[in-house]
Design goal:
It is a peripheral membrane protein. It holds the Pfam family ABC_tran. Keywords: Antibiotic resistance, ATP-binding, Nucleotide-binding, Transport. This is ABC-2 type transport system ATP-binding protein. It comes from Bogoriella caseilytica. By secondary structure, this protein is an alpha/beta fold. It has a domain of 119 residues: Rossmann fold, CATH 3.40.50.300. β6, α6 and β7 form a beta-alpha-beta unit. It has ten helices and nine strands. The chain has a six-stranded mixed β-sheet with strand order 5-6-7-3-8-9, with helices on both faces. Strands 2-1-4 form a three-stranded antiparallel β-sheet, covered by helices on one side. Helix content is 37%, strand content 25%.
């Protein structure tokens, strides 16, 4: 199966801090890959490098065979990105923001239908600046999907959402999987990763510490679930994981 995303020997340093230390990553088309790690492990730097928002000091990143920096305009047509902090026009309404994003693409999803699926239809005429954190998060996800991308990066997908909101977004992601969309999911929510991802990469201190299916990682760590496997693989404590979940 062809690679939708490929990273080779990616290295990135911020002064004395090494964010990526020779990371290799191959994501086959149609796969959903979870990226796990402590804060500072290199997760955000990795996905920002794939999205072309960071230039690596060394190594390469490709999305559908395209360089995300040199081929930026073409990559934008095939890649959707949802980052932790939603950035939208504060004075535009939810539907106006989403229609604006839809206008950037020759083809895409129906904005009204997407708002309905993400539970934002009741807020369609609310200005972005008046949305709650969870509503803003869902609009950010909608903006990442409205161009019907072939690859999607989702960073802390369900931060700030209640259980019903989380399950609603999970159903949307599962429908994307059925369509063959390639998904990179950064998350501290182990139940989310275990449910949605068919492959998991664990980053620690800028390196790939382990990777495999959720079941393989559990077996490798001699654990009973993915959360315990993650704690064992990176040497973290349950208290530290609770802190990560709270900060996400």
């Amino acid at each position: 199966m062809a690679a939708a995303v490929q990273v080779k020997n990616a290295r990135k340093r911020y002064r004395k801090k090494v964010a990526l230390d020779g990371v290799d990553l191959t994501v086959e088309a149609g796969r959903t890959v979870g990226i796990l790690g402590r804060n500072g492990a290199g997760k955000t730097t990795l996905v920002e490098t794939i999205a072309g928002l960071r230039k690596p000091d060394a190594g390469t990143a490709r999305v559908m065979g395209l360089d995300p920096i040199a081929d930026r305009a073409r990559v934008r047509m095939v890649l959707g990105v949802q980052l932790q902090k939603a950035i939208m026009h504060y004075d535009l309404t939810v539907i106006e923001n989403l229609r604006l994003h839809r206008s950037f693409y020759p083809e895409g999803r129906d904005p009204d239908e997407l708002l309905e699926k993400l539970g934002l239809a009741p807020s369609r005429d609310t200005r972005f600046g008046r949305l709650s954190g969870g509503q803003a998060q869902r609009l950010s996800v909608a903006a990442a999907l409205v161009g019907r991308p072939r690859v999607v990066i989702l960073d802390e997908l369900t931060t700030g959402l209640d259980p019903e909101g989380r399950r609603g977004i999970w159903r949307v992601i599962e429908s994307l999987r059925e369509e063959g969309v390639t998904i990179l999911l950064v998350s501290h929510a182990m139940d989310e990763v275990a449910r949605l991802c068919d492959h998991v990469v664990v980053l620690d201190e800028g390196r790939v510490r382990a990777e495999g299916t959720p079941e393989e990682l559990v077996s490798q760590a001699g654990a009973t679930n993915l959360e315990q496997a993650f704690l064992s693989l990176v040497g973290a404590t349950e208290g530290e994981l609770d802190t990560l979940k709270g900060a996400a």
